[in-house]
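Researcher: I've been going back and forth with a colleague about how prolyl oligopeptidase might be arranged in three dimensions. Neither of us has a model we trust, so I'd like an independent prediction. The organism is Streptomyces prasinopilosus, in case that matters for your notes. Sequence below.
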Amino acid sequence: MGGTGASEVSLRAPREDTVDRIFGHVVADPYRWLEDAGSARTADWLRLQRDRFARSVGEHPTRAAWEREVRALSGAELTGVPSWRAGRVFFEHTGPGREQPVLCAADPSGGVRTVVDPEAHDPSGRTVLGPWAPSPEGDLVACQLSADGREEPSLYVLDAATGRRVEGPVDRTRGPAPAWVAGQDGFYYVRGRPADAIPRGDVRLHRRVHWHRIGTDPRDDPAVLGDGMDPSSAYTLSVSDDGRWLVVGVRTGGRRGNRLWLADLTAGPPGKPRFRAVDSAEGSHSAAEIGPDGMARVLTDDGASGRRLCSFDPAEPDGPWTEVIAERPGAVLQEAVQVHGPDARLSVLALWSREACGELTLHDAVSGSLTARVPLPGAGTIGGLTTRPGGGGEAWFSYTDYTCPQRVLRYDARDGGVTPWRVPGRPHGVPAPAGGPGADAGWATTLRVHYRSSDGARVSMALVVPREAAGGPSGPRPLLMRGYGGFGVVARPHYGQDVAAWVRAGGVFAEPHIRGGGEQGEQWHRAGTGKDKQRTFDDFHAAARWLIDEGWTTPRHLAIAGTSNGGLLVGAAAVQQPQLYAAVSCAAPLLDMVRYERSGLGPAWAHEYGSASDPEQVEWLLSYSPYHHVREGRDYPAVLLSAFDNDTRVDPLHARKMCAALQHAAADPSGVLLRCEDLGHGARPLSATIGFATDVLTFLAVRTGLAAPGPDAAGPDAAGPAR
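Model: Here is an independent structure prediction for prolyl oligopeptidase. You can compare it with whatever you and your colleague have in mind.
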């Protein structure tokens, strides 16, 4: 994969003498010019990089085999968790061969129709369905659609019976799903200010919470919260099922934790709610909803790193909280919903995470005592926990793990049964879900292991190994290690065609639960942030050494991969310990940590990393910023940097500048490639997902010695029945 047709001289981009002086630090930035995506110089440089990538990966003889395998493992038919409104059930559905999921609605009679089809809106498949919410009456749906993955959605209101557009588009609506108010024919939503109202060069989103009544002009929608707040603030929205209470969570970029605001909508018109602050500890993070019993339920890390569930009277938001479910050792409380259990008793169904795997428990709603444990298909991820409005005895959730595509299960709290949820009908031309690729896990085994980091911290890690290696390593194999380690995100097991293809080809997959993530609660998260961010990277290096020492792999067989904050992780790993790794996939990364706040959503992340505008915090950033730690003449691993032109979250300038720096400094600059694609940071068409996975697998497999799959690699069992 070394030959590209370009000389080493042509790989080295011009360096400039750009220098910043920041609180006494002299910070060189020789590739500042690559921040300008619209310049002719950048365009010429990108043209060379695209040509090099096409020659090196796009035309590689093994790519077709990887694409065939990934495509065969990508055909699962998926249905999302249902949302019930007034007898109608709404759910997302992805049929075989579809680029994007559609939003469907099923009537009590069993008739199913498509309400939103992004491919009908945009036949290219590049428009993405974002957050959506049906009205309490089930007659309307408010949804977001984003073109080209830009995460700059427009809001639409559609007729649930016909799919006809009722209102929209309303632009600048990046944020959570709208929160409808029962009986008011309207909803609250988040909207940014218009561009001409934002100072030039200010990349903060300047969002506020607005009220909209159906049939009125969105230009006249009043802002009900956000004026006078930090322009980097992000919001969550929730309205009680009876339409009385509005709960808004506010998080500001430079601060830890959030603040909750509560309004009684019966005290005045919905366009002028009177907010009161919910009393909570400074720096804590809480999420609140009003239950069917009229009490506020708060999931909080206030006084509990692993979170606890409390309750309070919403009429007294500054009053005392009552603990309902206490923190549990070794587990993190993720969600909680109210259901009616045996004898119609009001109960709480709690979702926990233990070493990244989901657990469900049933508790008495008053005492919090444990009454039942919910049986699950395996050690996997539970998501989308939901009930009918007003409660009831049923709950629905999704399940997935490393070898099982997502499926939806129904739990009956009255008898403890867990059964597959079947759609009450089916979309036109689309069969009901029935298994899918990877559902038969006979080809792999998932192991849970632990290792010690450099400071002695005990870290857990998941290994997905071919079934013949279930008893332990019989010799080193090509190994792909993925990491994230940031923002309290839990690296949960989930099915991915890239991991399935890698393991089915004989490789091993590893995912360590490093600090900065939320696998062991908020303390674990904070232990890998700010001045302690290096611990995240140390945990990752320690995982690599453990895998090598235990005989699973060697440095010349070890590949690492990360996206977004995970791109920062693997970028830092590559420059800090290059001798440990053979190949790196670094996608949508943050890499220039001195200037990350100047683009994308950077201003919202100062609480996680620190700010270059602070004399102490800029030292934290400079201590590990990957772009600033590239050194000439070092033998760096092969690096594939992936940049997405429409990424409004992490600017692709990070990948461009790092690519130029590595190509200048590396002993073998031909091993550094840049992959560019005109998509966004997250959701993308299925074909683009397949293309990205194929390119990454081709690159990493060649560098680690993993043989490409044969023509029959996926085999009949790849599409076997669900477990």
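Researcher: What would you highlight for our discussion?
Model: I'd start with this: Residues 40-58 form the longest helix (19 residues). After that, consider the following. The chain has a mean pLDDT of 93.
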